Please model this.
Amino acid sequence: MAAMAAARLRVSIVVIGDEILGGFVQDTNSGWMAGRLQSVGVPLDRVVTVPDTLAAIDEALATELARERPRLVVTSGGIGSTPDDLTFEAVARHLGTSLRTEPLIDDRITASLERTRSRGIRVSEGHAASMRKMARVPAPAHLLSGGSGLIPGVAVDVDGGCGEAAGATIVVLPGVPAELRRIFDEGVAPALLAGRGDPQHVAEVTHPYPESTLNPIFDRIVVEYPDVHLGSYPGRECIVRLKGAEPRVRQAMALVAAYLADLAADPASARLSTAWSSRWAPAQPPD
Model:
C-alpha cells in the first residue's frame, strides 16, 4: 500500500484509424479525454495515432505499456464490424491470449439481426458473421459500464492492472464520440480514475504583447517556481497559463500580473502592442 501511495497513475491514448491519418476525419476523442483527465488530475503522457494494422497497433501498445507505471492505456477506434477493425484482435495478440464471445454483446447483435429480418431484409451469413465480430473480445477482458450499443468498451488488466504499482490496464473504446464519451464517463472514470488524481489549480491571464516580451518573467518563474507548470500561447491576445498547487500558482501569477502592470505603464509598450496586433489583422483586399 505504501508503494501505491507514492505511485501516480498515468495515461496514454492510442488513436487508431487510417481515416484520421488521411485527414478525412478529425480526432476529437483524444482532446475530449485530455480535458476529462485534466479535471481529475490524472496526467496524460502521450497521444499517438496509428493506422488500422495489427503491426502498428502492436507497436503502439508495446511502447505505451513500457512507460512508467501504473498506467492506463486507452485505445480509441477500430472495434466495429468491417475488415479494418482490428483492435480487439491486436490487443489479444499482443497479450498472447485468445478472443472470446462476450454474451451480452452477442445477444444484442442477435436482437439487432432479428429486427433487420423482421423488416423483410435478408441477412446473409457473411453479414451476420461480420456483425458478431464486435462481440469477440480479448479473453481476459471485462465490459465497462456505459456501452449501451453493439460496440462495447472493455478493459484488460496487465500485471495486476493499473491498481498495482507495476501494473497497467488497457481500455478499448469505440471511435464514435458519443459512445466513447458515455463509456468513459460511466465506466472508465468511476472504476479506474476515481481517487487516483491530484487535481491542479489552473490560472490564466491574457496580454497584448509578443510572447517573447514576457521571457524575463518566465525565466524567473521557472527558477523560483519549478513545481508550477508554465504555458504561453501566442495570438492576438497571448495566453499565459499556470498550473500546480493553488498557493504556488497564485504567487507565481502575482509576479506575472506585476510584470504586465509595469509594461502597461511604459508608453513604449503601447506601440509594441499595436505592432503585434497588426500582425493578426486580416489582409485588406486591393482597391
About this structure: The first strand starts at residue 10 and ends at 16.
